[in-house]
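Our platform keeps sequence and structure together, in a single record for each protein. Such a record has a labelled line for the sequence and another for the backbone structure tokens. This encoding replaces a full spatial description with a residue-level series of whole-number codes. Below, we set out a record of this kind in full and without editing:
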Amino acid sequence: MKTAHILLSAFLLMAASAIPQDNVLQPKGAIFGVVVDENNQPAKGLGITVAGPSGVALGGRLPGVITDQNGHYQLGNLPVWGKYTVYAEDWDAGYSLFVNSKFHEVTISPTHPEAELNFRLPPKAGFLDFHLTNRKTGEKIGDLVINVRVAGKEYEKVHGISQSSATPVLVPPDEDLLIHVTSHGYQEWNQSLGKGLRIRVKSGNHLKLDVQLEPAS
């Protein structure tokens, strides 16, 4: 008899825990739409990222999706109601939130669990391709540290990053930029000393830079 009471209690506990609660992480809604490029053509195979509503435990990035051949995407099983932020984040395609991508906000709720969000992409970023070597030995340098600012707005940093020198750096397109280049354990590139090296890269184009750095003394 005692065993039966224990089993019944366990069953009731499991049943209660299965009942959906407000703001509990239960799959609830979906966001879908079509993304086109700056020429209004479908953005194929593009990485789309969604950030969860602020003020909840889930706040932050959720698993992203890739657009299909028609530029269509769908973000399903969104776990809480609220305002979501959707944006393109695909460095290979030339889009980065820190450089040229834009936030698009959409809200899902119990009365509107599915929301359509179509948007047009800005121009692709420009790409900087670095060939980074040790000036004394000629050996390749594996990591790159770069700071990018808009000319005439030196107080506004576009971004400062440290990354593999084999990975292209995305920069705002069709802008006069000032860059500073160095690497850990090395002096700054002599061509970017002072105010920085002035560059300009067209949307979607690659600018190759051969950079030789002196080891730090």
Notes: Residues 149 and 157 are 5 Å apart (CA to CA).
